[in-house]
Design goal:
CATH superfamily of the largest domain: Metal-dependent hydrolases
Cofactor: a divalent metal cation
Family: Belongs to the metallo-dependent hydrolases superfamily. NagA family.
InterPro entries: Amidohydro-rel (IPR006680), GlcNAc_6-P_deAcase (IPR003764), Metal-dep_hydrolase_composite (IPR011059), Metal_Hydrolase (IPR032466)
CATH architecture of the largest domain: Alpha-Beta Barrel
Number of strands: 20
CATH topology of the largest domain: TIM Barrel
Helix content: 25-40%
Number of domains: 2
Oligomer: single chain
Protein name: N-acetylglucosamine-6-phosphate deacetylase
Shape: globular
Organism: Caldimonas brevitalea
Length: 376
């Protein structure tokens, strides 16, 4: 992008809100200037609210397309989520045979190398399956198997894998975590029947977080704390799906008190942004109805959540706006070690969302490209 562009409003910097201007040029933030302002004034004033672009580390689909379909799915999915403020994301796979994963990652490789106009940046791949427990599949097809470094290297050659979900109790998975970390993969625990002790050991060996906390893992009991107990007692980072279907507001509040850098993901499917009806999720047919997405037996199968709604839901639970903003952008960036995203600071990527006082989107800027989406 050439030329300096200016955004005026209440701008959330790492040091708090300022009333002033943000300038960006050639895809980067060039200058932020303004006077400090209390958050209470931000929500009462008519000036735009300017926040870091949202970062979603768990996206299966959107706009009628599923990441596992390959082809132009990454662009179609990225376009839908950009309309809702997501400026960068991890395209997330389903548990599947190797050939299906190769099809998906074959399409994701070019999408990761070059962002198409009007689409979110695809940062890489979240390999949610297949290294999970077949007894905690959730909505995953049953192609679960122990982790394989050879398989991972084949897939990573097609598209960069940034995040791997695994069940540490599967044979060999726990012992493989240090090698995965040494190879540059972030590892998190999910779709697991593991014990509290196995969760703690996985974190000791390098697992950094948990996949959709509370869902598809052993629950908390006062004599058997389970994987949820390991997360609440020890984790610094964890995903959570704040659509208010996957986790009760009370459970979300519990996690907020226990996990310092709890961050939001959508776990969105092809049904996001689409009317009620049938859609594909990997090899599964799922149905969108009554505000959710389900398998024929009623099991929740991902969501239709978007990150702008996640922000509003977190504020609705009582979070201050600066705190909620970190949970839809900054903490996810920090988890992946992305210091130039997830924050509005000089030199960072110009990934910006502009909202009104009701937190409805008016504009999204991704790497300096301005997209007008009034009340997307």
């Amino acid at each position: 992008m050439s030329g300096v562009a200016v955004i005026e409003g209440h701008i959330l910097t790492p040091d708090g809100f300022v009333r002033g201007v943000l300038e960006h040029e050639d895809g980067r933030i060039r200058r932020i200037d303004g006077d400090p302002v209390a958050e209470a004034e931000v929500r009462q004033a008519d000036m735009p609210v300017v926040l870091p672009g949202f970062i979603d580390l768990h996206v299966h689909g959107g706009g009628g397309r599923d990441i596992m379909q390959g082809g132009d799915a990454p662009h179609r999915v990225g376009s839908l989520h950009l309309r809702h403020g997501t400026t960068s994301l991890l395209a997330t796979t389903m548990t599947a045979p190797l050939a299906d994963l190769e099809t998906a990652l074959g399409a994701l490789g070019p999408a990761c190398r070059e962002r198409r106009p009007g689409s979110a940046r695809v940062l890489g791949v979240h390999l949610e399956g297949p290294y999970i427990n077949s007894g905690k599949l959730g909505a995953q097809p049953n192609y679960a198997r122990p982790a394989s470094m050879d398989e991972l290297q084949k897939l990573n050659a097609l598209a960069p894998i940034r995040l791997i979900t695994l069940a540490p109790e599967l044979p060999g998975n726990l012992e493989l975590i240090p090698a995965l970390r040494a190879a540059g993969f972030q590892v998190q625990i999910g779709h697991t029947l593991g014990t509290y002790e196995e969760g703690v050991e996985a974190m000791r060996l390098g697992a950094g977080g948990f996949t959709h906390l509370f869902n598809a893992m052993t629950g908390l009991h006062h004599r058997e704390p389970g994987m949820v107990g390991a997360a609440l007692a020890h984790a610094r980072y964890s995903e959570i799906i704040p659509d208010l279907l996957h986790a009760h507001p009370g459970a979300i509040r519990t996690a907020l008190r226990a996990i310092p850098c709890l961050y939001c993901v959508t776990d969105s499917t092809a049904a996001a942004g689409m009317p009620d009806g049938d859609y594909m999720l990997g090899r599964h047919k799922v149905t969108k109805c009554l505000g959710g997405v389900r398998l024929p037996d009623g099991t929740l199968a991902g969501s239709t959540l978007t990150m702008d709604q996640a922000l509003r839901n977190m504020v609705g639970l009582g979070l201050e706006l600066d705190d909620a903003s970190k949970r839809v952008s900054t903490y996810a960036a920090d988890y992946l070690g992305l210091q130039e995203r997830g924050r509005l600071s000089v030199g960072a990527w110009a990934d910006v969302v502009v909202l009104d006082r009701q937190l409805q989107l008016n504009q999204v800027i991704v790497e300096g490209e301005a997209c007008e989406f009034p009340h997307a």
